[in-house]
Amino acid sequence: MAKPITTIQKHEMTEEEKRAEALTKLKAAVGDSEEAVHELLEFIEQLHESGLLEAANALLKAREDVAKIVVGQLNQKPVTTMVNHAFAWASLASSLDPERTAKLLEHIASGAIEAYEQTSVEPTKVGLFDLFKALNDPDINRAVRFFLSALKAIGQRLGNDS
Amino acid sequence: METRTVTVTINGRPYHVKQGMTILETVNEHGLPHPQVCYTPELGAIQTCDTCIAEVNGSLLRACSTLVEDGMVVELSSPRAKVAQKEAMDRLLENHLLYCTVCDNNNGNCKLHNTAEMMQIEHQTYPYRPKVDPSEVDMSHPFYRYDPNQCIACGQCVEACQNLQVNETLSIDWEAERPRVVWDGGVPINESSCVSCGHCVTVCPCNALMEKSMLGEAGFMTGLDQDVLKPMIDFVKEVEPNYTSIFAISEIEAAMRQQRIKKTKTVCTFCGVGCSFEVWTKGRKILKIQPVSEAPVNAISTCVKGKFGWDFINSEERLTKPLIRKGDTFVESTWEEALDLVAEKLGAIKQQYGGNAIGFISSSKISNEENYLMQKLARQVFETNNVDNCSRYCQSPATDGLFRTVGMGGDSGTIYDIASAGLVIIIGANPAEGHPVIATRVKRAHKLFGQKLIVADLRRNEMAERADLFIRPKQGTDQVWLMAVTKYIIDQGWHDESFIRERVHFFDEFKQLLEKYTLDYAEQITGIAKTDLIRIAEMIHEADGTCVLWGMGVTQNTGGSDTSAAISNLLLATGNYGRPGAGAFPLRGHNNVQGACDMGSLPSWLPGYQHVTDDAARTKFEKAYGVRIDAKPGLDNIQMIEAAERGDLKAMYIIGEDMALVDCNANHVQDTLAKLDFVVVQDIFLSKTAQFADVILPAAPSLEKEGTFTNTERRIQRFYQALEPLGDSKPDWWIIQEIAKRLGADWNYAGPSEIMDEIASLAPLYSQAYYDRLEGWNSLCWGSYDGADTPLLYKERFNFPDGKARFALADWVEPVQYPEEYDLLVNNGRLLEHFHEGNLTYKSKGIQRKFPDIFVEVSPELAKERGISDGALVRLISPYGRVKVRVLVTDRVRGNELFLPMHSTANESAINILTGPQTDHRTNTPAYKQARVRMEVLERSGETPLPRTNPRFQKRHPQNGVEVERKWRRRDYVPLTEAEKEVKIGG
Q: Chain A partners of B240 at a C-beta cutoff of 8 Å?
C-alpha cells in the first residue's frame, strides 16, 4: 500500500559540501582559462598597488549616493548650459568640411605668427593713410575680402533667423 | 480566383501590385521605409496618426487607407508629403517625452523611437506637455501599467481591444481636452472588464502600456531609484540636444541590451491553439512574452496565460532532484540512484509478469519527440501496447467520430478557415475561456465581417452572449438536435446532393436512420423549440461555409463519439468539408493532445496513425525496433486502472498527467494507484499523482528544452530552449532515454532533432517534419502521406482507400441515469485564468490576485430556493464522493445546473471526486459531464470567492473600434490630408 506522501526530505548540503561544490566548479573554470586568470591576477595586483582598486571600491560602495550627487550636479543650469554649448559646438563642427577648416586654420595661424614677428621688429604706428595704402597690398586685400564675405554670410543667416 | 494586377509609380519607380492593396501595404511589401506609427497589419488602417501621408496624384492622402489604382503616381518623400508627415509626428511627440536611454521600452523595437529616428526628427515643434499628474500613472493591474503622460493616443490598443481581442474594454476619450485611453469609460485598470490578454500592451508603439515585468529590468539604467531616475530624465530633457544625438546614445544602450536579453521562440503550453511567440529572458528572469506577426497561428494575439502566466517556471515548488519513497517520506537522490532503481524495478516486473503488467501514461504537455520515445519505450523495451495519454480524458471521442466519417483525427482546416467561415457553430465548448485566441477570430469576424454564430451549451458563456442564436439543450442530448437538423435540411432539399453522390457512402442508410429524428422528437428530448431547430437549419443553408467547433461538452458523454460523428455527418450532408471556411474543429485542450496521439502514445495506434492490426505497418516498426509488436491493442488509461484493480497491472510509469485528479471517480483512482507495486511519476511539481509514486523524476518544462508540438490545427511547430533546466531537472526525452538504456536499449539520441528524424522515417504524415524545415516561425500542417503541408484536408479525397467519406450510422445514446436524490447536474470545465487542475497557473501571483480559488456557480433561482448567497459554503455529494466549495451566484448557469471549474489541486474541491465511472461507449472516455449531486448547505453566506476585481463582475464597453471620426471632428484637429482641407502647418 503506497499512501500519498507530501513531505520531501531534502538533502540539505552542509556549508562544507556547498563550499566543496563551489570550489570544484571554480577549479574547473580556472583550469579552462588559466592564462586569462593569470593576467587578471596581475591586473588586480597593479590596480591594488596604485591604490585605484581601493578608490574604485569606495566609489562602488557609495554608488547610490554618488549617483544622486552626480545627477544633481548635472541638473544645475550652468552644467546643462555647458552641455548644450558642447552639443552646439559639436554640431557646428560636424557640419564643416574638415579639410577646408584645416586649411583655413593653417592660414590664420601662419598669418598670425608672421604678423607677430612683423610687429615685434617694426614698432611703427599705423596711421589712417597707412591703412588705405595697405588695402593695395594684394595679400591684405585678400584677407579683408575674406572677412567681408564672412560678415556678409553671417548677416544673411541672421536675417533668415529673425 | 484571379486577382487583377495594377501598376503604380512610387517615388518614380513602377510597381506591379495586386488590386485591393493599399499604398502602405505595397510600400511595406517592397521594403520601402515609410512612417506608419498607428499601423499594425493585424488591425488594419485605423488612420489616427497621419504620419503615413503621401502625395498621391498630387494630393496628400493617408497611404494606409488609400487603395492602389492603375496608373497612380505616389511620392512618399515629396516636400509637401514630408512637411505633412513631420507635422503629424510633431503632434504625436507633444504627448511623449523621449527619454529613450532610461526607458524600459528602448529595445530596438520601439515604433515611435524608430519612426522619429527614420524621419530624422531634430526638434520638437510643439513642446512636450504632460496630460495628468504623474500620480495618475495606472499601476493597479497585476500585469501591466498605463502612463497617460507617455501615451500618444494612437488608439492601436483600443482597436486591438475592441476589434481583435473583442473584449471591448478600452476606448479613447476623444472629446477630452487631452485625449487618453480609458478602461470601461474611466475606472482603474484592475477594476475594469479587462481580461489581461495583453493585446494592448503588444501593439502599443511606445512605453505608455508596458508589462510590469519589464519595468526597471530591461535597461541598464532603468532600474535606478526614482530619486535618481527622475532627475536623469529631467537632465536629458533639459539638455535637449537635437534628437539625433539622443537617438545615437539610446541606440548604443539598446545594442548593449541585446547582449543581455535573450529572445527565444517558444510555443505556448496552455491550450491546443498553438500560439507561438518570443520569450525575453534575462538570466532566469522572464522579462516578457513578445508576440510577433510572423507567428503562424496567433500573430500578435495572446491570452492571459500565454502572455503573463509563466511564473511557475521559477516556482520554489519545482521539483529539482529525483525523489525516492522511503517510509512515509520522499528522499532526494541522485539521478544514478533513481534511474537505476526505476530500471531495476520495472525490469524485474517485466521479467516476472511480462511487459503487459506495466502501464505507460504519456503526456499531452510534453513534446512530440518525448511522446514518441514513451511509446517506443513501451513497445520496444517492454514489448507492450499499454501506452496511452490524456486525450483519453477529452478528445478520443472526437477523433473516433472523425475517423469513422472522414478518416483523419484532426481539425479539417486551420484558424483561417474558422475566421473566414460564414457560420460558426460552437457546441459544448467555451473557446472564449478555453481557446481564447481562436475565440478572438470568431468574435472579430462576427463583429466586423458579418459572420454568424450559433452556440449550443448548458451555460451562458461569453460566446453564447455574443451568439446570433443560443440554444441550451438538455445535458447529453446534442446528438438528437444535430440529427434532427440534418434530417430537416435533407427534407428541405438543402443538402449538397452532388457532394454526397460523388464523395460520401451510405446516404440511403443514413436517411433511414434519421427517420426517427423529427423536429417534434428533438424538441421533446432536447427541450429546444422547433423554431430554433429550423432557424439553425436555415442558417447553415444560407451560410457560405459552416465550421463546427466542439469540445468536452460533446465528447465527455456516454455518447460522445456518436455525437462527434453526428457533427461530421451534418457537415458531410451539407458539403462543408474540403473547402475553405468550413469543416470540423474538435478543439484540442492541451498544447500537444494532437501530437501525443500522432506519435502513437495510444494503445491501438503506432506513430502516424498506423494501426497495430495493420500487418504492413507493424512489420515496419518491428523491423525498426527489432522486436515483435503485439497485433492486439493495449490497455487505455481507464483499462489500466481496472487492470490494476484486478491485480493484473503491477506498475505504472506516468509522465506529466495528474491522473489522480483528472481521471473520473478520482477517489477510486487514488485507491488503485496506492495498490500498485511500483509507480514512477515524471513531473515538474509534486502533483497529487506524484504523491503516490515510488520514484519521482524531476522533468523540465518547455522553456527549458527543445522540441516540437502539434496544435489543434495539426500544425507542427518547433520550440527552442530559453532557460537551463532548473536544478537537476532534465528534459523528458533525456530521462526516458536513460531508462531505456539501462534496460539494454541501444538509444543514442543526441537531441530532439535526431528523434524527429526517426519519426519522419517511420510516420509518413510526419515525413517532412525535419527540424530545418521547421526552423524559426516555419510550421507544417500534417495531412498528406507524402508529408506535405496540408492546411486544408479532404480537398480531393477523404482518408479511406476509395477516397470517399462515410455517414456514420449511430443512434443517440441516452445519458447516465441517477437516483432521484441527486437532483443537481454538475457541469464542469475550464475558465480563462487557469489551466487544467491549476498546478501551473496557481503559481502566478497576478493570476492569484484575479482568481485565487475555485468556487461553484449556482443559478439565482436555485440560490433563492436554497436560501444561499454569494460566498455560501456548500457540500456537493455524488454517489462517488463529496467536495466542499464556496458559492458564486450567477445567471451564467440556470435552474438545477451547477458549474464547478476543474481548477483544483485538492481532493476537497476537485470535480473528479464527484464524477462516476461511466464512459463513452466507444472510446472509454469518462462521461465527466454527466455527473449529478445533491447539495448540503454548510454556511448560508460568506465572503465572495471571486474578488470583485475579477473582470466577470464588470460590464464591457463595446464601440466601433477606435472611432477616429471623433478625433477628426475635434475643433482643434486640423486635417493634413487634402481630401478634407488645404494643409495648414503650425498648430
A: 84
Contacts of B190 (CB under 8 A, 6+ apart): B140, B141, B142, B949
> How far is B409 from B398, CA to CA, in rounded Å?
8
Sign of the dihedral through C-alpha B907, B909, B914, B919: negative
Whether B714 is in a domain gets the answer yes
- Quickly list H helices, B507-602: 507-514, 519-526, 530-542, 552-555, 560-573, 593-598
Residues in chain B within 8 Å Cβ distance of A83: 239, 241
Q: Do A8 and B691 touch (CB under 8 A)?
A: no
Residues of chain A found within 8 Å of residue B694, distances taken between Cβ atoms: 2
The helix (H) or strand (E) run that includes residue B361 is strand B358-361
Q: List pLDDT tens digits, range B466-498.
A: 999 999 999 999 999 999 999 999 999 999 999
Closest partner residue to A68 among B227, B670, B673, by Cβ? B227
Residue of A nearest to B674 (CA): A2
Domain of B863, CATH number, reads: 2.40.40.20
Residue B933 backbone dihedrals phi, psi, to 5 degrees: -140, 170
Cα B314 to Cα A123: distance, rounded to the nearest angstrom: 87
Which residues in chain B are closer than 8 Å to A64, comparing Cβ atoms?
225, 228
B266 found inside a domain = no
Letter for the amino acid at A142? R
Instruction: Answer yes or no: do A4 and B692 touch at CB < 8 A.
Output: yes
Cβ distance B666 to B660 under 8 Å?
A: yes
For residues B650 and B719, membership in a common domain is answered with yes
Q: Three-state secondary structure along B21-68?
A: CEHHHHHHHCCCCCCCCCCECCCECCCCCCCCEEEECCEEEECCCCEC
**pLDDT band, residue B267 (cuts 50/70/90):** very high
Reported as a pLDDT band with limits 50, 70 and 90, residue B981 is very low
Alpha carbon separation from A36 to A22, A31, B259 (Å, rounded):
20, 10, 22
How much is the pLDDT for B984? Answer: 44
Are the beta carbons of B903 and B838 closer than 8 angstroms?
yes
- Domain termination residue (choose one: B774, B792, B810): B792
Name the strand (E) or helix (H) holding B504.
strand B504-505
Q: Output the pTM of the full model.
A: 0.89
Question: Which B positions 649-708 lie with beta carbon below 8 A of chain A?
Answer: 670, 673-676, 679, 686, 688, 691-694
Q: Are residues B601 and B574 in the same domain?
A: no
Quote the CA–CA distance of B843 and B310 in Å, as a whole number.
8
Q: How far apart are CA A152 and CA B224, in angstroms?
A: 51
Q: pLDDT tens digit string along B794-847?
A: 999 999 999 999 999 999 999 999 999 999 999 999 999 999 989 999 999 999
B100 sits in the region (left: phi over 0; alpha: psi -120 to 50; else beta) called alpha
Residue B586 CA to residue B559 CA, distance in Å, equals 15
Q: B489 near B517, Cβ under 8 Å? A: no
Q: In which domain, by residue range, is B381 found?
A: 323-394+593-792
Helix (H) or strand (E) holding A87: helix A77-95
**In whole angstroms, what is the distance from residue A113 CA to residue A153 CA?**
27
B412 and B389 in a common domain = no
- When the pLDDT of each residue in chain B is averaged and rounded to a whole number, the result is 94
